[in-house]
Amino acid sequence: MGQDHHHRTDWKHDGVRVIPGDQLDPTTAGQTTGMNRATAINFARVGAQKIWAGTVHIHANAKTGAHHHGDLESVIYVVKGKARMRWGNNLEFTAEAGPGDFIFVPPYVPHQEINASSDETLECVLVRSGQEPVVVNLDIEPVEKPENVPWVDPIHKHPGHADPNSKR
Fold it and tell me: What is the DSSP string of the chain?
């Protein structure tokens, strides 16, 4: 029965896809100074239904506010630099990750992302379990205030830009 499916599907065009690192799609909406982001895998580019993946370069000292991503799961792989995560109902837990480390953020976990370096760009690969950039901002006083440099990436919009998916 697997054979029949094999004959009906054009695996040459609907099979494995390699997306070269120099052919990622830079998100045109609101690129931020000192920050680059690019989509590698999404529905529009390769027909992905359940995952999104791309790269994020975050400048030194950048931080998000407290938020969660609804029912999305997120995986962050640190390529270069130092990331600090804070999480919990009062962001009371903390962990750091460096090059080669993976960070997993489960659904609904209140958290804050931080570039823990004052002079080095944080370069990451971000994978999430859906196409919709869900962000629910939380009214928690973060231990590390994100005033100086906001963290902006495909999911965390600039605080000055209204996001229809965001709830305050």
Answer: -HHHHHHHS-HHHHS-----GGG-EE--TT--TT-EEEEEE-HHHH--SS-EEEEEEE-TT-B--SEE-TT--EEEEEEES-EEEEESTTS-EEEEE-TT-EEEE-TT--EEEEE--SSS-EEEEEEESSSS---EE-----SS---SSB--SSSS--TTS--TT-B-
